[in-house]
Design brief:
10% strand, 7-stranded mixed beta sheet, single chain, 22 helices, two-stranded antiparallel ribbon, 51% helix
Amino acid sequence: MKPVSPLLVLTEVESQIRQLLLDTSDHIATLNGYQRPELRFAGGWVRDKLLGLPSDDIDVCIDNLTGYKFVILMQDFVNATYDAEKAKNILGTLAKVDANPDKSKHLETTIMRVFRLHLDFVNLRKEVYDENSRTPTMTFGTAEEDALRRDSTINSLFFNITSSEVEDFTGRGLQDLEHKIIKTPLAPYETFRDDPLRVLRHIRFASKLGFTIASVDEQAMGDPDIQAALKLKISRERIGVEIEKMLKAKLGHVLLRAEDRYHAWLLFALVPWAKVTSHNARHPKGKRLATAAAIVARDGIKAPNKAPNNIIDIVEHASRFVLEVQAMVKGPTNYNHVEEDSNREKQGHSSLRLVYGKAIRSWGAHWRLCVFYAFFVQIYGTDSSSWQSVFESYTSWLSRIESLRLLEVYSLKPLANGTDLQKALGASPGKWTKIATDMVIEWQLLNPAESDPEKAIAEVQRRKGELDLTK
C-alpha cells in the first residue's frame, strides 16, 4: 500500500461533515469501553474527486464499530452538544438496510442525512467463505482487506479523514484510474462468482467514465458459470438499480427526456416479449397488433391507449424499427466512411447528417424511445460480457447525433411549404407536393447553416425532373 497526497479540495458541506466525524471520533474515545475509531471516505467519492467530478455519494468506513453503532453514538454526541433545532439541521432520520446474502447483498448499511447529504455508514470488512458455501460471512477487517474485496481497483481507494491522505491498498487503483482501466482487485472469476452484480457494475462504470474493462475481466464476465450466477443470485430490483444508474450516464442523459421516462420504463418491462409473435391479436381500436409486447401492454399492464402517449402504439412503433435502429447504430449501409481527403470531409459529414436525419424523422416523434427499446432488445439478446461494446456503440452513435445537431431533427420545419412550392412550380396540389417538401428537408439537412427559402425552392426546381407534377 502506498499512501499518496493528491490535493482533494473539499466543498464547504464536505468539510463540515469531515469535522463532525472527527469530533464524534474524539467524543467516542472518551467513553468507557471504546477506542477512537479511524474513519475513511471510500469508493466512488474518492474516485470522482480524483477525476475532478462532482460527487455526493459518500460512504464512511469505520474500523472498529458497525455503521449503525457509530451513527447512534454520533446522534448522542450531536444532541448533547447542540440545541434541538440545530441538531435537527445537522442530522436527519436514520435508516438501516439489512444484509441479504441470498441476493448478493452482503453488507448491512446505515444511512443518515448529515448536513444535507445522505451518507452510508459501514464498518471495514473482510469476507470469510465456508468451504461448502459461496455465501460469505462478513467480519471486521482491515482497510486493506476491505479494499481487496471491492468490485474494482478504482473503487477501492480511501480518503483518510484524519490524515487527509488518499490510500491505495490494492497498489494499482491510482494507476488504473490514470490509465482508465476497470479491473477487479483480485482474480476476476472469483470476484464475479462471489457477487455477480459486479459484472453490471463493471459495465456501468466503463460506460459512465469512458473507461476500458481489462481483458481478463471481460473474459471472466462471459464465463457460463458467471452468467448463470448472475441470473440466479441477483434480484430484479438490484439489476433495475444498476440499469437506472447506467442510464444516468451519457446514454440516458442524451437519449431520454423527462417526459419519456414513464414510457421508457414500460418499454423496458416489455423487452422479454420483443421477439414473440402476436398471432393476430387486436388493438383496442380494432387494428391488428404486430408484437406480443403490445398485447402484454394491452392485457397485462392495462397500459393507457389515449393519444398522444398511447403506449400500445409506441410499443408497436418501436418494435417496427428495432432492426433498423440497430443497423443504423452499427453503421448506415448506404453511407461510405469519409475518406481522409480533406476536400471530401465536409461532403461526407453532410451526407452522414442526411442519412441519420432522414432515419430519425422516419422513426417518428418518439424516436428516442425507439432507440431506447432497440438498445435493450439488443442487450437482452446478448450475454453480459458483450454489454460494454453495446453500450459503447449506442453512446458513440448518440454522441455523433448530438455533434451533428440532430437531436431535434424530427421537429425540423421545411423552409418552403407546399403552397410555396406549388406557386414556384406553377402546378396544382398533388402527391408530388409531399415528395417536393421532402426534397426541401433533405436540402436543409445537407445545408444546416442555410435559412433562405428561395435557395430551398431553387433546389426543388433543380430536381424538378424527379417530380410528376400531374399527380
